[in-house]
Design a protein that fits this description.
Elements (H helix, E strand, L loop, with lengths): L6 E3 L10 H11 L1 H4 L17 H24 L2 E13 L2 E7 L13 H15 L4 E7 L3 E8 L2 H9 L12 H12 L7 E7 L11 H10 L2 E8 L4 E8 L5 E7 L4 H10 L4 E4 L2 H14 L3 E12 L2 H19 L7
Parallel strand pairs: 3-4, 3-6, 6-7, 7-10
Antiparallel strand pairs: 1-2, 2-11, 4-5, 8-9
C-alpha cells in the first residue's frame, strides 16, 4: 500500500498551477455581489433567523469546482509509488558452536552462572549472523552434536535454551567436542568455516581424541577454531560434589583453564584465543569474532513504479460531476 514517504511526482512543475486556486476563489467571492440581483429593504427583521438550505448549498458549488481543479492538478503531476525489490546474494559462513556443559559451568562467577550467561550471549551472536548456517555441539566427559548446521536460527536458539548440565557424563573432553564439530564441517562447501569453542576447564576426558589432533584435522580442512576460556581469575563458587538426589553441592574452588592449550588450538588454525572473566567481556569477545568473520553479501536493488494519478483523476471527475449535476438540477436558478 503506497505511503507518503514512497510517493514521487513525475511532473512536479504542474503544482505551480495550484497558485491559481486562491486567485479563482478571490475572484468568485469578490464578484459574487455583481452576479446576483439585490434590493433594499427598510428592515430585515422579518427574515431574522431564516436560512435557506438551497442557498447554502449553492454557495458551496464553487468550492466543489475548486476541489475538482485541485485534484486534476495533482493528477497531472503524475504521482507514482516507488516499490523496491532487493535481491540478496549471500556467501554465508558455516559456524559450529562447541559448548562445555560440564558441572563446573554452573559456577556463579557469571550471572546467574557460566552456562546461562554463555547461552544468552551465543543467542545474541546468532541473531547477528542472518545469512550463516549455525550448528551446536556440546561436550562434558563425552560429546555429541545437539543441532546440525542450519539457517533456521529459531531451531538452534531453541536447542541453546534447553541446554543444561548433567545430561552427559561429567568431565571436560575438549578433543571430543572439537572433533565432533569438525566432523560436521568436513562436508561443508562453504568457503568460510569456523568453530567457536567455549570451555571453563582443562582437558581431562576423552583421551582417545587429543585436542591438538582434532585441531590438526581442523587445520587440514580449512576450519578456524576460535577458543574462549570462561572463568574469573582466582577462586569461584562452583559445584564440588553431588548429593544422592542429584542436587549439586557448592564451594569455592580454584579456577583452572588450560589457556596454553586453547591458545595453541586457535593459533594452529589461524584464529584467536580469548579469556572471558565476566558476562561483559564474553559479550565483547563474541562481538569481536562477529567483526572478524564478515559474511559477504551482494544486494541488487530493483525499483518498480506504480501510477497513482488515477484516484486523483477520478476524484476530480466525481467532484466536477456533482457540481454540474447540482448546478443544473436541484440548485438551478433562472438568472
Amino acid at each position: 500500500m503506497p505511503t507518503l514517504h514512497n510517493i514521487t511526482f513525475l511532473n512536479p512543475g504542474f503544482f505551480l498551477l495550484l497558485g491559481i486556486i486562491p486567485l479563482l476563489a478571490f475572484r468568485y467571492f469578490y464578484q459574487r455581489k455583481k452576479r446576483y440581483a439585490s434590493f433594499q429593504m427598510s428592515s430585515l427583521e422579518a427574515f431574522g433567523g431564516q436560512s435557506s438550505l438551497r442557498g447554502t448549498l449553492r454557495a458551496l458549488l464553487p468550492l466543489l469546482r475548486l476541489l475538482a481543479l485541485t485534484a486534476f492538478i495533482v493528477a497531472m503531476a503524475r504521482p507514482q509509488a516507488t516499490l523496491k525489490e532487493e535481491e540478496v546474494t549471500a556467501e554465508g559462513i558455516d559456524i559450529m558452536l562447541v559448548t562445555d556443559i560440564s558441572s563446573s559451568m554452573l559456577a556463579k562467577d557469571f550471572k546467574p552462572d557460566r552456562l546461562e550467561a554463555s547461552k544468552k550471549v551465543a543467542t545474541e551472536f546468532i541473531e547477528k549472523r542472518k545469512y550463516d548456517r549455525v550448528g551446536l555441539t556440546v561436550f562434558a566427559g563425552e560429546a555429541f552434536t545437539q543441532c546440525p548446521l542450519t539457517t533456521d536460527h529459531s531451531v538452534i536458539n531453541q536447542f541453546l535454551s534447553e541446554l543444561k548440565c548433567g545430561i552427559l557424563e561429567d568431565g571436560t573432553a575438549i578433543g571430543l567436542g572439537l572433533a565432533a564439530a569438525v566432523n560436521r564441517l568436513k562436508e561443508s562447501e562453504s568457503k568460510s568455516k569456523i568453530v567457536i569453542l567455549l570451555t571453563d576447564g582443562e582437558n581431562n576426558a576423552g583421551d582417545y581424541v587429543k585436542p591438538l589432533t582434532a585441531a590438526e584435522i581442523a587445520k587440514e580442512l580449512g576450519v578456524k577454531v576460535y577458543t574462549i576460556g570462561v572463568g574469573t581469575i582466582g577462586r569461584a563458587y562452583a559445584p564440588i560434589g553431588r548429593r544422592g538426589d542429584g542436587e549439586y553441592v557448592f564451594g569455592f574452588v580454584q579456577v583452572r583453564i588450560d589457556e596454553k592449550l586453547l591458545r595453541e588450538i586457535a593459533e594452529m588454525t589461524g584464529a584467536k584465543y580469548f579469556r572471558a572473566t565476566d558476562t561483559e567481556s564474553l559479550e565483547a569477545i563474541y562481538e569481536e569474532i562477529n567483526q572478524f568473520e564478515k559474511t559477504k553479501i551482494e544486494v541488487t536493488t530493483v525499483k518498480r513504479y506504480s501510477e497513482e494519478f488515477y484516484p486523483w483523476l477520478w476524484l476530480g471527475l466525481i467532484l466536477l460531476g456533482i457540481e454540474l449535476l447540482l448546478r443544473y438540477t436541484l440548485l438551478k436558478t433562472i438568472f
